[in-house]
Amino acid sequence: MKQAYINPKFVTLAVIIIIILLPIFCMKREPANRFPVISLLSYRFLINDETELRSPFPEPSRLIINNESVEGWSIPDASVLRFSMIIHEGGILSCRLGITGDFLASNGDLIFKIDFIEKYTDENRVCTDRVKNTFNLYEASLLNNPSLRDSWTQIDIPMTNSHILYGDLRFSVEGNLENHPELTYLWGAPTLYFPDMLEKKNILLIGVDTLRADMLTVYGEPQNLTPVIAEFAQSSTTFMQNRSQSPWTLPSFASMITGGLPSRIGATMLSWSLPGRATSIAEILRDNGYATGTVCSNTYIGNSSSGFQQGMDSFWYSYNVRADVSIQRAEDFINRSKDRDWFCFLHFEDPHTPFTPLPEFAARWCDPSYTGEFKTAFTEDADWKFSSTVPPEADIDQVRNLYRSEISYLDSSLAELFNFLEENNLMDNTLIIFSGDHGEEFYEHGAFEHGHTHYDELVKTPLIIQGEGFPEGEKISDLTGNTDIVPTILRWLNIPLLDDLEGVPLQDVVAGTVPDDRIIYGEDNIRGTQRKYALQWPYKCIYDYSDRTCKLFNLEDDPGELTDISSLNPEISSSLIYKIITKMLSDKSTFNVWFMGSFIENPHLFTGTLRVPGGIDSVLPFALSGDDTWTLEGDTIIFSITNADPSTNVDKHFVIVPSEDADTLEIEFLVDGEIHPEKLFPLGTNVSAESNSVSVKLTDFPLVANIPTGENAFSGAMYVWGILGLGEILSRNELDPESIAILKSLGYIPE
Predict the structure, then answer these.
(1) How many domains does the chain have?
(2) Where is 551: in which H helix or E strand?
(3) Do 549 and 451 belong together in one domain?
(4) Are 211 and 439 in contact (CB under 8 A)?
(5) Does 136 lie in the same domain as 54?
(6) Among 79, 170, 257, 696, which one has the highest count of C-beta atoms within 10 angstroms of its own C-beta?
(7) Residue 3 burial by CB count (10 A; 0-12/13-18/19+): exposed, middle or buried?
(8) SS3 state of residue 444
(9) Same domain assignment for residues 206 and 193
């Protein structure tokens, strides 16, 4: 056998490359597809100059300055944080410095420093306690740099060392801190990255709140309301039959950034947030080296307990700001991240109520002859969404035109964003996804606003994508959903798809490899009875759980969904209802107990017990505050809960999973220490209890209870309802006569 010859020069070169690159690989906490970026948020670090690591280590938290939250740490009183790490030539250390509070120059200066403490290593390249060198990487005087105060400051430090350094990265504040007791020192988003080794493939996800598809020129709006978006569509692929997964903001955007259905990821009106167990696209991309940022103006996304912050280096939120402000914030983030791959989720609120368009846009799109009360604006004071009276047609037309005026303003603002991307040569290496969370109803089906039905004026949303692999100017009529956005991003970046994604990569839709009988699902109402839908072209089934009725429409023949054909097509209706139930209803039964806030009363203290004879499998509390308490003792929950403060927009509640075969919830309670049965609505309806001691069974409830709406929903009361799970027998997705018979016997499918 002939012996292979290996050139010694190649061996030497290989060894050098390994020596250079191995420490960089070792710094990563886990393998990633993007290389090389190291987020120090996951590092263990030292407090002060101790050689021993303290345990438990402080966890990073969201730190807020001027509406922007950054994940990081508040510097402890001892004023030093230290990371043990390795640095290499060519890297850039990036972080955000924040200082808040009153600074009095007369009390002395403070110096903020970032140093690297090089250590000697042993024969195994493990750092010893011996200090070899100290390199100052950054230093700033607070007295001489007033811009550091009350803002986040971006710091990018090139690593110019000529060899690998082992040691500690140290962030410190020097000076007489006792003279500045009002100051707080924050350090966020520390990252070490190597710009020359990055591919520079960026993601811009534009999500518009309350934008129905038929308001865009590219979707057939006849008056050229949105010429900027129309021009963008000419260089993009437009998906003509896209649907959102919910008719209101939180679950819809949660599906958009996770790729899962609201009930599967737990982002519904029962949780009022995106739970931590759900994996967002930002988490995936940050683990793969991306700078991640959100700019938003909706409270359901932006509030501190929303859950949308997970995976975000930077999260900027200001309620209901106009598009030009949001665009400027997004550009700031992109500029800060220009040397890295970045992901930006840019949310716009402009088409959402209240409709208060700028005068030049209202003048362009509103009827000048209109003389009613909504001449220049429609505010929530009108409260149409809870009224059963249909307003005069002239008022409806005017309010619709105010809505259209807001969309026109948004469209004109987008020109600045697209120009910015073009001027910075970002168009060719950025995947731009334009979509919406839901639409708006103007009494097409007897109601106003959104969140209550699943007709297409609420769930048919735009989806336009520009980037490599998406043909310019092409319009695709295949069914798609917002759950397709996450798998599309992952495919575009060659990152493996997660196993539990609901959607498919839109590249497959473009290629025509997705089955024609695909089904798109949607669910969750914020008001009204609970409904879910399934769309399998051309049939769309909307199923109402409260009265177990359905409506079936043929969208090809009846795009306005005006003629219910369910009675003429019982097999199609039963098939789609079955798919809805087995897809989106939990296998487990639950009791749900809400402590709802009031806009007309001060908060009340609810105390008492919740007992499930036969046992409790688990309890999930949501949105409880620091003064609330509860304990689980055997089959009984003992609680002391103050009902929600309306300023938080979040109602506190328990989800109680009973043990197998347990089906009863026994409630005893007091309100502010007194008996008030009128403060308990035990069956999820607007009928209050007759006693402060009540017992309910799962079978006492509709299959999914009618969730209270209107004024009674804000009475500062405790609401209870039960949801009967189907169990494993109906977990199959196949349609078979036995399962249909079971569903009919339970009342899920009408006879």
Answers:
(1) 4
(2) strand 549-554
(3) no
(4) yes
(5) yes
(6) 257
(7) exposed
(8) coil
(9) no
